[in-house]
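Batch manifest, entry 17 of 40.
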Amino acid sequence: MTRTPAVRTAVVWDALRSVLAERTAATGRESLDIVDAGGGTGGFAVPLAVLGHAVTVVDPSPDSLAALERRAKEKGVGVRALQGDAADLGELLPSDAADLVLCHSVLEYVEDPISALSAVAGVLRPSGVISVLAANSVAGAIHRALAGQFDDARAVLADPGGSWGDRDPTPRRYTADTLVELLSSTGFAVGAIQGVRVFTDLVPSRLVDADPRAAEALAALEQAAATHPVLRDVATQLHVLAHRS
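Output type: structure tokens
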């Protein structure tokens, strides 16, 4: 098993651990109610359940939900699985049902990001937190240029939605400013913004896997770069934490 995947999410997990500590202290409950919108096979949901939290995954793919249930069973935990889109949260869950909602790699693909975030706001309790992870348009241009696709890179920079065309598998990308604007317009008070995978996607896996200390060093580098005023804005993904107003 390569070490690179763990490094890719290390910054996000550090931020989530802080949120979990803050919300458990604020609510006085050790077990929080967490919804993972678009949580797929449970990469975040299952570890959160292992920590003792009550986790519900909402995802449109029945295959992903089946894989989630298998993963949860292997870890000896229960995770509630509901089929649906992020915009369906209000129909699937009661109001004020969640302390934390994960919305990771979702806003790039949903038909209407405003409707999706409005649905999230409806299921969050007052002062509840949303964790948003979204593709960065600047990084999209950099990665296309590194692949030799220079016209595509220029198209990403020119397109307000950060797409390089009809063949782009990611329909929409964001900048820090456009994510803040989107969250603010749907009633969230935006807090920390971090860059995720500033260097990890540019470093060959063999350099990390060949040395047991390399993954730890790369994770430390990512942590240092996550809030750097320049490096944050060229990260592959942007991670935003926001509270329900």
